[in-house]
Amino acid sequence: MGENPIHAAGAAEVWGDLVENLGGQTVVYATTADLQTIGIVLEGQRPVELGSTVSAYIDPARIHLFDAQGAGI
User: Fold this and answer.
1) Predicted local confidence at residue 11, as pLDDT
2) Which of 4-13, 28-37, 46-55 has the lowest mean pLDDT?
3) CA-CA-CA-CA torsion sign (41, 30, 71, 11)
4) Do the beta carbons of residue 28 and residue 53 sit within 8 Å?
């Protein structure tokens, strides 16, 4: 299962694997404690270091989930 990173906001602990600074946003691709991958979009330029711990909250009302074939569920 995957999720759309667009609506993730700054309380689970995740570890930053890849950080993209995209002008008005910073995208952090991270791994959760149960080894799931997640993409987090933060507004503005954020100083996130690779391997650092990031606190994340996902608004359940705005999450988009996908199955293994990429279809929305």
Assistant:
1) 53
2) 4-13
3) negative
4) no
* pTM confidence score: 0.60
**42 token code pair:** 């933060």
Contact 58, 7 (CB under 8 A): yes
Tell me the C-alpha distance between 65 and 63, whole Å.
Answer: 6
- Residue 2: predicted pLDDT: 44
Average pLDDT over residues 21-45: 84
Cα 28 to Cα 52: distance, rounded to the nearest angstrom: 11
Query: How many other β-carbons are positioned within 10 Å of the β-carbon of residue 5?
Result: 18
Strands 12-21 and 37-43: unpaired
DSSP per-residue string spanning 20-47: EE-SSEEEEEEEETTS-EEEEEEES---
